[in-house]
């Protein structure tokens, strides 16, 4: 594709995230337009396409990817539908931004990794958008300077106001904690080697049978220990914190994303209701970066190896959660394409 041409993007899956990415591509970022929208819900996708000039509605990802005006694909269907769409895009050598998780389990992630390897070059970026969040980027830069010495521990807190009714215990690990798996690997630049899950008494705000909150522990290659509080139904807002405990100091992010207001004898701030608002800038930067690199014919950001590694940690995490024991993470040797 000539670099000056706007990138024609097919958005696959037009629910909460997909519709937000359509808005972002059409109204927030530059260099791309939505030329196709795809959803198994025919009426929804038809009415979405009707509001976008030059955009066609499809109910089959493959049909959209075959269209002449589609240069790249943004996948925002549910995790279990990602593998089919990813393999179709790789078969056509199309650049992809795939919402997390790459796929929901290690075996399917490995199939995608093998398909990209057969292609011989990277085509897929995974939507681990926290790597584009200003606060996480500052923390990454600080740890990279070496000023604080080695990182010994990370404390993560990941609280959601509530979860959709179909959310399961396993999804707390492979849909929510998958973000902490990725940022831990990225911040420490190493793999997670084992997972343990502890279950405190469940909150009465959580649905019957859901162990919520949970405390998920990672061990890493260098011997760092990482804890993640995942709370799906905290009932008061959406909060994501991270603190690095290093040899010569600590660094913490996520405490005060907004202004601290003092008024009428009280001080305080607003807590964002959900990830769409908390990570709005990160999603914008992520999609802009993907469009820019794609138009230059390059691939950057978290890729298939990161998606596969996270899926393997998820698999260990779900087993640890189910069986109440420490589970080691199994990874294949990292192929040359991802070094
Ligand atoms: N990066 C982040 O912070 C977030 C990422 N996500 C990820 O985004 C993806 C979508 O999540 P949501 O938008 O919350 O889900 P959603 O349920 O709101 O939307 C999914 C859409 O995909 C459609 N769909 C289902 N199967 C399909 C198929 N085979 N082909 C095309 N469309 C299909 C559904 O009809 C629905 O419209 C998931 O991978 C999820 O993990 C979700 C929330 C936040
Ligand atoms: O990816 C996301 C959701 O799918 C997940 O359900 C939430 O817990 C996360 O905070 C959000 O970023």
UniProtKB/TrEMBL annotation:
Catalysed reactions, semicolon-separated:
myo-inositol + NAD(+) = scyllo-inosose + NADH + H(+)
Pfam families in the record, alphabetically?
GFO_IDH_MocA, GFO_IDH_MocA_C
The keyword Nucleotidyltransferase belongs to this UniProt entry's keyword annotation: no
Q: What EC number(s) does the entry state?
A: 1.1.1.18
Q: Which residues form the Gfo/Idh/MocA-like oxidoreductase N-terminal domain?
A: 8-128
SUPFAM superfamilies, per this entry?
A: Glyceraldehyde-3-phosphate dehydrogenase-like, C-terminal domain (SSF55347), NAD(P)-binding Rossmann-fold domains (SSF51735)
Q: Which InterPro entries match?
A: Gfo-Idh-MocA_inositol_DH, Gfo/Idh/MocA-like_OxRdtase_C, Gfo/Idh/MocA-like_OxRdtase_N, MI/DCI_dehydrogenase, NAD(P)-bd_dom_sf
Start and end residues of each Gfo/Idh/MocA-like oxidoreductase C-terminal domain: 140-329
Asked if the Swiss-Prot or TrEMBL record annotates the protein with the keyword Acyltransferase, the reply is no
Which keywords annotate this record? Answer: NAD, Oxidoreductase
Q: Subunit notes for this chain?
A: Homotetramer.
As for what it does, the entry says: Involved in the oxidation of myo-inositol (MI) to 2-keto-myo-inositol (2KMI or 2-inosose).
Q: Which family does it belong to?
A: Belongs to the Gfo/Idh/MocA family.
Q: Which HAMAP family match?
A: IolG (MF_01671)
- What's the protein name? Inositol 2-dehydrogenase
**What is the source species?**
Streptomyces endophyticus
Q: What is the lineage of its organism?
A: Bacteria, Bacillati, Actinomycetota, Actinomycetes, Kitasatosporales
This protein's encoding gene: iolG
